[in-house]
Amino acid sequence: MSSAPRLGIRENLGQFSLLILVNAFVGAMVGLERSVLPVLAEDEFGVAARSAVLSFIAVFGLTKAVANYLAGRLGDRFGRKPVLIVGWLLALPVPVALVWAPSWGWVVAANALLGVHQGLAWSTTVIMKIDLAGPKQRGLAMGLNEFAGYLAVAAAALGTGYLAAAGSGSPFVVGLAIAAAGLVLSVVAVAETVGHVAVESADADDGGALSAGEVFRRTSWSDRNLSSVSQAGLVNNLNDGVAWGLFPLVFAAAGLDLRQIGLLAGLYPAVWGLGQLVTGPASDAVGRKWLIVAGMVVQAFGVARVAASDGFAGFAAAAVLLGAGTAMVYPTLLAAIGDTAHPSWRAGAVGTYRLWRDSGYVVGALGAGMIADLVSVDAALWAVAALTGLSGLLVAVRMKERS
Fold it and tell me: Fewest CB atoms within 10 A around its CB: which of 124, 223, 325, 377?
């Protein structure tokens, strides 16, 4: 007779490490686009309007947001592993479509599929690590998860920038190997974690199962902590969408070449990824609220620094600031969801939070794109910086620190 699952990172080190590797592959899939696609939109597809260039990010964010929500609900109903496998199956056609895209419409369609893959696969690895870690190590678990994912984003962004500059064929071909590896590992080696949820639920205070509607309501607006986290997540990914879509255009307009743009596109998520090794466990020790507030303020300064700079050194300093602020916020927000949500409806709360968080891509792409077209790119960046500061202020006023 097998023993009951045990909670904790050390107790589940093999599976936990495997899920970190799987999430690195998930991050690499989206990192393939970050340095070159906005520039290719102008140079190869003739897309001139900033709002049109950012359309691929808006579509990506919309489909990822919906898939995040579905990942939580489906994970509660059918288990985590099947959702992860479906996510990887949907990743396989994406690099093929990007390599052979005859028009910008194909790129946008491929990003819709990429968004569904990211929502299902990344959300599920987050949920599974929270399941394994238990209540005492959520910050560390999320720091390790997001470290792996965003360090892979950085490596892929840097690599595709250099491949594109060298003219060594399409940088998206490697995406097919990444997707295949992620799928094989998920099918063959990843184990289901719903048994760990049952163990934690038995030890937790009675929270009762909630309907999907009630989980959505609490996470979106009625619970002070969950809703504060959701709005901060939305603004955080609004910044990431702007960094993904507008920053390469700003860098190119300043005279930087594709290698330099790739380096800057990789620097921001590299600082973000590495920083989470510190900020994730720090949030377990010092609390969630003020780390989130400080992170939003630092992000605001990072976006403002891009608008105020016109050379590589200034842009690099801005990338470091934005990466550091995001590292303070990202794992802490996810850990705060785990603090508040009962294990019986935690996956649904994570899915709802990630729905709102990745809606930030849509808001950022559409809003910043419109301001850039109607006024200027710099005006869009200053508006985003101000909104980010206000988001941090809202967390300071409304969120309560965990007990």
Answer: 223
The amino acid at residue 279 is T
Indicate the angle between helix axes 13-31 and 174-188, nearest 10 degrees: 160
- Residues for the chain: how many in total? 403
CB-count exposure of residue 100 (10 Å: 0-12, 13-18, 19+): exposed
Is residue 14 classed exposed, middle or buried when 0-12, 13-18 and 19+ CB atoms within 10 A define those classes? Answer: exposed
Please give the Cα distance from 15 to 8 (Å, whole number).
Answer: 11
pLDDT in tens, the chain (403 residues): 457 788 999 999 999 999 999 999 999 998 887 766 776 666 666 666 677 767 888 899 999 999 999 998 899 889 999 999 999 999 999 988 888 888 888 888 999 999 999 999 999 999 999 999 988 888 999 999 989 998 898 888 888 777 777 765 566 788 899 999 999 999 999 999 999 988 888 766 655 678 889 999 999 999 999 999 999 999 999 998 898 889 988 999 999 988 898 889 889 888 988 998 999 999 999 999 999 999 999 999 999 999 999 999 999 999 999 999 999 999 999 889 988 988 888 888 988 998 999 899 889 888 988 999 999 999 999 999 999 999 999 999 999 987 6
User: Can you give the pTM of this predicted structure?
Assistant: 0.84
Taking Cα atoms as reference points, which of 215, 243, 357, 358 lies closest to residue 292?
357
Place of tokens 């300093």: 317
| Joined tokens for residue 108 | 């946008």
The span from the CA of 96 to the CA of 338, in Å, is 37
Contact call for residues 119 and 358 (beta carbons, < 8 A): yes
Q: List the chain domain ranges.
A: 10-199+212-398
Q: What is the 3-state secondary structure (H, E, C) of 90-113?
A: HHCHHHHHHHHCCCHHHHHHHHHH
Nearest to 377 by CA among 309, 289, 291, 280: 309
Residues 332 and 341: beta-carbon distance below 8 Å: no
Fold of 10-199+212-398: Growth Hormone; Chain: A; (1.20.1250)
**Which among 86, 140, 84 has a CA at the least distance from the CA of 347?**
84
What's at 119, amino acid-wise? G
| Residue 193, helix vs strand vs coil | coil
